[in-house]
Amino acid sequence: MTPTGRVLLIYTGGTIGMGLNAKSGALEPLDFNHLVQRMPEFDAIPAGIDVHQFAEPIDSSDMNPRLWGRIVEIIVGNYDSYDGFVILHGTDTMAFTASALSFMLENLTKPVILTGSQLPINQLRTDGKENLITSIELAAARHADGTPRVPEVCIYFSGKLLRGNRSTKINSEGFNAFDSFNFPPLAEAGVNINYRYDLILRPDFARPMTPHFVMDTNVVVFTLFPGIQEAMVRHLLSAPGLRGIVMRTYGSGNAPQQPWLMDALSEATGRGIVIVNVTQCAAGPVEMARYGGGYLLQNAGVISGHDGTVECAIAKLMHLLGHSRDTALIRARMNSPLCGEITLTA
Ligand code: ASP
Question: Staple partner for 223: which of 35, 94, 106, 248, CB 3.0–4.6 Å?
């Protein structure tokens, strides 16, 4: 199948469009239009492609919620003119952006595919060309009835199309930079692209897509480790303005059974701080009632992050806190899937 729709490429920066700075030798973002003009493969793609480039392309370590809002604005402004969107983005924070966009673009009815590369697109051994070309194909792909095959925010990288809010960067060097440990790929691209239609979300095509912009950044991620000190935890929990925490726990959601820890957490949840339990393990869900430590966390008012990623939990928390001050409502929504980001087990 060849892509024939209209796709808007949004270039935010990242290695895919970088070149070497002659002085420092470090990679820095270049003009993407200029790069693709010198790429004959790009002209051969039958889809209608336009490029919208950030005024100042960034290394994705500089990505932030204001720029997520900028991406959403670009998508909203062009929503009716394109069949799908490809976002070129650095890999370092791509999973955070994909997660955030999945909540910011409610009832998304068109594909939004994030991709990038480990080697710049103008280098001989680049992985960027395949990632870019296949992403365009995925963004343009439609069913016979004209509806898109993948109306979701996804990451495409190294042959796999992953649900964006299930993805994690797993490799700083290999071309297989992303994985989704708790959810299968939505499609795999080999000789053919094999879609898992049983997994791909179907939005309500009769309803419009609703964009959301507000994110509350009064949140923090913190990791448990053996030897963690009460003074440090209490300092963190008393940070002015703090409204949400993603706590990276052990195994199936376990924690040290120290009374001071449970008291400190319970005081914080009592003050309305939403604390979400996400495991430090790459794969598998949180099951808080399984061990004594997890059970105590539950009693302290900590809620389960289920089988979601840290990237997704923090983005979802920012989104929900940005739209409500009702802690009970935020806790309830954290506990239910909004767009396929967690699986609830009985
Ligand atoms: N530092 C780069 C970035 O995230 C890495 C990459 O693009 O792969 O922008």
Answer: 248
Ligand 1 in reach of 116 Cβ (< 6 A): yes
Ligand 1 atom 7: residue of nearest CA: 90
Q: Do 223 and 119 share a domain, yes or no?
A: no
- Looking at the domain assignment, is residue 340 inside a domain? no
51 contacts 96 by C-beta, under 8 angstroms: no
Domain check: are 267 and 310 in the same one?
yes
Q: Is 285 left (phi over 0), alpha (psi -120 to 50) or beta?
A: beta
CATH number of the domain to which 269 belongs: 3.40.50.40
Protein residue closest via CA to atom 1 of ligand 1: 59
**Looking at residue 130, which CATH number applies to its domain?**
3.40.50.1170
Give per-residue pLDDT as tens, 175-231: 999 999 999 999 999 999 999 999 999 999 999 999 999 999 999 999 999 999 999
Residue 1 lies in a domain: no
59 lines ligand 1 (CB under 6 A): yes
Residues annotated as part of the active site: 15
The pTM of the full predicted model, rounded to 2 decimals, is 0.96
Summarised one tens digit per residue, pLDDT across range 75-122 is: 999 999 999 999 999 999 999 999 999 999 999 999 999 999 999 998
* Calpha distance 156→178 (Å, rounded): 9
- The number of beta carbons lying within 10 Å of the beta carbon of residue 20 is 13
Nearest-atom number in ligand 1 for the CA of 61 is 4
Residue 344 lies in a domain: no
